[in-house]
Design goal:
- The protein is mainly beta and 400 residues long.
- Helices cover 0% and strands 55% of the residues.
- The strands form 9 sheets. A 7-stranded antiparallel beta sheet has the order 28-29-30-31-32-33-34, with no helix packed on it. The chain has a 4-stranded antiparallel beta sheet with strand order 1-2-3-4, with no helix packed on it. Strands 5-6-7-8 form a 4-stranded antiparallel beta sheet, with no helix packed on it.
- It is globular, with a radius of gyration of 24 Å.
Length: 400
């Protein structure tokens, strides 16, 4: 059945060939999924839905809550619902190509595949991705072992690791044993070619996030946790002096200090690109890692922020791409959703929305009440005069 746009009360742009939509209003509003031709793929029968950026899944919730406990996952690649009971709080394992999910019950973890088959029973204290296998903890002995996705034991429950930090799917696991830090492969063997990181003592170590070219770590500093960063060999490139460090995109990390609020940018080698100062926030543009949204707090209108777009040149210089006159929210992609400003009853508020190119060119004029774009330039969702429909990047109405 092809959906009639007159019945749509909410619409998102297409992603991986499908778009979230809703019918009804208020507590009667229900969410479903359509393909890019307007045919209903998932009937509108769920109270809420959620899809995060670049995720292959749309989460539909059986209750008016975004808790994992009520989530059902629809796989946009396979075109099916993941067949795992939502009461087991399934969470996809990143990098497993939609194959595996962590499942939980009574503080115990297991692994199920997308068909609902329980590969590892829900009786383990910890489970993490380990280069294609799983590193697993026995909750009774606290010892670790390694198992394959078929449930075969590669390493028996015999490793007395003090700390275990799984990384990305292509990253080895970082462990601590007898006060020594080292990396292990999917067979539990120490990787001698990868330098041992010089991390703080266990009592002060609060957080680790291991990626391909860096490790972000947090240490206790009196009443606060401060964050620093190691390079791929385990050497410190950013000292633990920041209140937060997180990956902005594939080339840069954002450094933050909260009191007073400051934000800056460093590359993955620890070099400063934008100093950590000023009353501003930094956001990424996924279509180009060298494009950064710089959002400044407005002194006159305290509930509003003005944003510009800058390009980081090869020599580290910053070039303004779009001037400081737009309202631009959060992380953007290759088309940038922006709004013009208006003053209403003494307060500065976003006006109508349009689309900018990554070079700052106005592609879609500022005439819409809402724009939601994901990855399909022919199926950009817009709202105008209480009507939802699709346009393309040339501002031509499509499908509906």
């Amino acid at each position: 059945m092809i959906l009639d746009s007159k019945h749509i009360s909410y619409l998102e742009g297409c992603y991986n060939g499908c778009a979230v939509f809703a019918m009804g209003k208020g507590r009667d509003q229900k969410f479903g999924l359509i393909d890019r031709d307007g045919a209903i793929v998932v009937k509108p029968e769920f109270p809420t839905s959620l899809r995060t950026d670049k995720s292959r899944y749309v989460r539909f919730f059986n209750k008016r809550s975004n808790s994992f406990r009520y989530a059902r996952y629809y796989d946009l690649i396979k075109g099916i619902f993941v067949n795992i009971d939502e009461k087991y709080n399934p969470i996809p394992i990143a990098g497993s190509d939609g194959r595996y999910f962590r499942t939980f019950t009574r503080n115990r973890a297991g692994i199920a595949d997308y068909t609902g088959r329980q590969i590892l029973p829900m009786k383990h204290g910890f489970i993490g991705w380990c280069g294609g296998n799983f590193i697993v903890q026995d909750p009774k002995t606290q010892l670790f072992g390694i198992m394959t996705p078929d449930g075969d034991v590669v390493v028996p429950f015999s490793r007395e690791y003090n700390c275990v930090y799984p990384g990305d799917v292509e990253m080895p696991v970082l462990v601590k044993e007898d006060k020594r830090w080292f990396y292990i492969d999917k067979y539990g063997e120490a990787i001698t070619s990868k330098g041992a990181p010089e991390l703080p003592v266990e009592e002060k170590l609060m957080y680790l996030e291991c990626k391909k070219r860096y490790t972000i770590y947090g240490v206790s500093r009196k009443t606060a946790v401060k964050f620093g960063m190691l390079d791929e060999s385990g050497q410190e490139v950013i000292p633990p002096i920041y209140d937060n460090i997180y990956l902005l995109n594939q080339k840069y990390v954002c450094t933050r200090i909260y009191e007073p609020y400051k934000a800056g940018l460093k590359d993955l080698y620890g070099n400063t690109v934008i100093p950590t100062d000023g009353n501003r926030s930094l956001y990424s543009i996924s279509g180009d890692d060298d494009l950064i949204i710089v959002q400044y707090e407005n002194d006159k209108f305290h509930d509003s922020s003005e944003a510009c777009i800058v390009r980081i040149e090869a020599d580290g210089a910053l070039t303004e791409v779009a001037p400081l006159k737009y309202c631009i929210y959060g992380n953007q992609s290759d088309l940038i959703t922006a709004a013009s400003w208006r003053v209403y009853r003494g307060k500065k508020k976003p006006g109508k929305y349009g689309l900018l190119s990554s070079s700052g060119e106005e592609l879609v004029p500022f005439e819409y009440d809402r724009i939601i774009y994901w990855d399909d330039k022919e199926r950009i969702a817009v709202n105008k005069g209480n009507e939802w429909f699709f346009i393309n990047s040339k501002n031509e109405r499509t499908l509906f």
